[in-house]
What does this fold into?
Amino acid sequence: MEIEFRNINKTFGTVRANIGIHFSIPAGTIQGILGENGAGKSTLMKILSGYILPDSGEIYLDGELAKIENPADAIRYGIGMLHQDPLDFPPMKALDNFMIGKPGSLFPARREAERAFLELRDQFGFTVDPNSYVDSMTVGERQQLEILRLLWLGVRVFILDEPTTGISAQQKEKLFLTLRRLADNGNTVVFVSHKLEDVEALCDRVVVLRRGELAGQMTPPYDTDRLIEMMFGKVIKLDERLPCSATDQLVLRLQNVAIDDYRLQIRNVNLEVRCGEVIGLAGMEGSGQELLLRACAGLVRTVGGRVIVNGKDLTGKDTHSFMRHGVTFMPASRLEEGLIPGLSINEHFILTGEQKGVFIKRDKAKSYSQNKISEYSIRGFPESRVEALSGGNQQRTLLALLKEELSLILLEHPTRGLDIESTIYIWSKLKERCAKGAAILFISPDLEEILQYSDRVIVFFSGRVSPPLDATLTNVDQLGQLIGGKGWEEIFEKEQVGVSNAAQ
Amino acid sequence: MQHNEKRWQNLGFQLGAVVLALLLTSLVILAAGAPPLDAYKQLLKGAFGTKMNVADTVVAWVPLLLATSGLLVTFAAGLWNIGVEGQIILGSIFTTGVLKLLQDSPLPPAFIIVLAVLGGMLGGGLWAVLAGVLKTFGGVNEIFGGLGLNFIATSMTIWLIFGPWKRPGVGSMSGTEPFPESLWLPTLPGLRLSIWAVMLGIIALVVIYFLLQGTYFGLKLKAVGNNPRAAFLLGIPTWQYMLLSFFLCGLFAGLAGSLQVVAVYHRLIPSISSGYGYLGLMVAMLINYQAFWVAPVAFFFVALNIGSIQLPIALKLDSSLSGVIQGSLVLAVLVVEGIRHRLLRK
Amino acid sequence: MKSKLVWQLFALVMIVSLALAACAPAATPAPEQPAQPAEPTKAPEQPAQPAEPTKAPEQPAEPFVFGMVMVGPYNDNGWNTAHYVAGQYVERKMNAKMLYIDKVNPADRPGTTPAQIAEQLLSQGAKFIIFNSDDMKDSSVDFNKAHPDVPMIHASGDYAWKEGKVYKPELKNYVNVMGRMEYGKMIAGCAAALTTQTGKIGYLGPLINDETRRLVASAYLGAKYCWTNYLGKDPKDLQFKVTWIGFWFNIPGVTSDPTQVANDFFNSGYDVLMSGIDTPEAQTEAKKQADAGKKVWAVPYDYEKACDVAPSICVGVPYFNWGPFYLRWIQAYLDGKYESAFEWYGPDWKDINNPDTSYVSFVKGPALSEENSKLVDKFIGELGGGLNLWKGPLNLQDGTQYLKDGEEATDQQIWYLPQLLEGIEGQSVQQ
It folds into this structure.
């Protein structure tokens, strides 16, 4: 199906999210939509998929004017969207979720749905279990589920908004194959991303958005520098790696920690983290790194061993005790666990800031948040509700909410869905924290990011936990092998050396 | 300018809701075989026809004001405190208990009344905390827990009236033995209206308004209500705040029940809560949990209740028509709100 | 674009609703005329005065408006219907008009008090108020204190009884009336005893208070008398049991279900069920059982035509005739002779069914056999001739002496009967 955008405009309050967007996508192609956070990509896609209405402008499908007023309309036209934060109904089984939105009888044919589910799943080599609960799934699994659901609904235009974040390299490869196959069958794929290499590797053509406007279009061969220029208006170089000066003070000590989950068992984790250190946790989603990270925040109960923060044994304590001892946790799902929809940026700062007396000093709070907003380059106002911010700005807000004096920062996917500029910015802020003596543990599916920013790396594979590897002595290939479950004997031999090093 | 247009638009929608409700009600009245205009006229007359009617409307306004104010606190915390009805009842029971205990003591009556009112608030608060504990520790949804506790509270009233607190010799549906007049909140001459009760109601509303709009506590409650998970991770002790919001709501509901005893009935009667809790839930929904609108909308609701007494007298219509109006109003507002969202997409 | 649509929609709804309201049957101005509100500023000493314009001189004299506050539904075929027809009786007998409001009880009208409702009647023009339930006693006092100049009757109460235990001398213009239903219940008890074949009589009681205790006791006295004297049986073979439901009528979730209680009686061998409640469950349940082949009967209560609910099993009904009370008092008010009083009047023994003179009565039902009918007539004759069953030796339920041998009970002893009598099964005191 050919899609044509004609002069699309959309304004949110004072923010102009789409300004006169005008281009078309030929049928059977993979169209990349590139742009930094807040460039208007998500808005445009939400308009196409009926989640919001444009202020003006039309969409033509195969040359005919389409009236898309809600997601159901879009589905009827064969347009389906896969979300950045998958929209689902948490306490539900995957199969139930799969069946939602399917028009038909009042009593859905479960068995038929399950057969279709399994068929599609096997066709694309996915691993989702139809009977697992959605709220216990990883982001990658949720995405797989969304793709299956759209396929089953008979969608012919697939919109994928930042689909490669939050899934492993193998899953990404599989996804790309899937998308290729979809396009080869005559479907149209709209691939929204800020990741140049993904877009270059996959897309037949690319449009770039910048600050709500169409900045340019390109077909292969791609000129990377030119694309970056279109995105940011200037060329940016990645920061050099700057190693923290790790001092000797121990921020976190894990002794023989054991964690049980219904899927995984983690045993005998020993780790010593010094202040100023950054430790990356690598692994496919659901390999155990999330559990360990949350255990360090007191969010997951350990079943054995001890968790010691700043010399204080906090084993079995709740997360607020951990917080009082300078631990903070930033969750991956920003709007589900990190921020509070319905409250403004200002109110978030009031909540996390210093509280004196009973009554809120609004004026003072507002000027404080104004400062934070400009310090962290958040595109928004003190009064803006957090759910109206773009993903990157939500992440900046979360970062800005961190207390001044922290000794341990635990991050789930700190730069998920962010463009290069934001990523660099956020890491520069985090490194400032390290310089002030905080240690960081973070999870990322992006091995480059892990190697770029970590001092040491811990790899997880279905509950197995590697000893910390020196980031300067390993590389993407080795990490990739370990994540896939290969080469573990070798590192356990090396570990003896590592331990004796630590003992010195 | 854009703002102005939006305001007019909102007003238009709200008016639309009211008209829709009137339309629904008119249909019901017609179906009952009565002239709608006349019915509305009788309603107005019943609520405002005489000085006494107006006073009665205000008398009924106070407990609704208190119940709704309390509910705003639990709603802010994202809780459906259906148990508010039982909390009002427990306020009445505790107040009656304190009065019975102290009525023969040498303490000054004013002091006894103050103790009784405080006791009533405590009673309501504790009953609410019970619903909260059931939720946070027992995993019982506050709606079901609240319904159960309401039932227990009602049964408890009946048991007390016919059992331990019955009148000398006889149990009677008309309640316990009335307290001596010295233990009544003073009323305006010739009316059943106590200015003290009205003042307490208004003070409660103002307190709630500022609590929710201007304090750290209120903001934290809102955070817990909108996203308990994130609020917890941001360092707010979630379940403690939930319990606290239950307790606060219970205090206000208890005060409402207490005033029913010391200012209105001067004894414990069956169904002393008079459905003000449930009505409060409707008011809160109708005003979209905005404290600013509590007073006028609650007043409108009780005016309907009081005015509707005229319907069976003058038109042989059932008084439950007031409930129909209230219900269709809430429904109409919800429906119109839905339509507005559809048409305007925020 | 969208907002225009909305406005059009809005306008449409507005027009339709206005049209509906306006096109409604514009007639029935009737309720308005007598319903002129009082002029509150003008007549503080007489708050219930109707406004001027209704007093058009050329019209026939305005009917006197009186208001009735009823505890249950006016069509309950029991207590409340008895009051309702009494009001109609007054309307027939003089130029008067009744305004009434029914279901005035905490379950049906939460948040209102009978006093408040009486005031609403005043605002519709009523000048005389009747409260029809014992449960309105507090409210009737409140009302009386707030409106000392408005004549009123509290039926079945005793605050105006000088010799009573709870006499309130401070009340002005406060009248209590009550029928001596003791006689009605004795006759009913007699009919029940003559009819029963198992020797087991059940009594479906409302809540326990002085009134209901003495009525149960009366029914028992009548039953025992006819059982022993007319049938010549041993009083030990007569079982008489009362079960209280908790209120005058069924309030789901609050009272026991009277249907269920009636059922239990019939299923445990009680074949005649007397009703002490306001509603006809005893009859409907008996009818159901009788239709299923059981030999059972019911004795309803309160309202003359109560047997109509299920005539085939109806032994007869003891009923109140409130009309003469109300007519006489309203007339007394118009004649300037109204003053506080307590009246407790019984049947007119010359003709117990006389609607103008007999305050309490009994009508035989179709299920009363001819032979028994004669015995009942004989019993009525004996009562009219001076037979007093409230005479010693009588013991209370717990065995303590109530009346010495030969001692006749005073009115106070009867009215304030502290317990049921010996020989009656069932609770004397609530819980």
Summary: The CA atoms of residues 15 and 40 of chain B lie 17 Å apart. DSSP finds 14 helices and no strands in chain B.
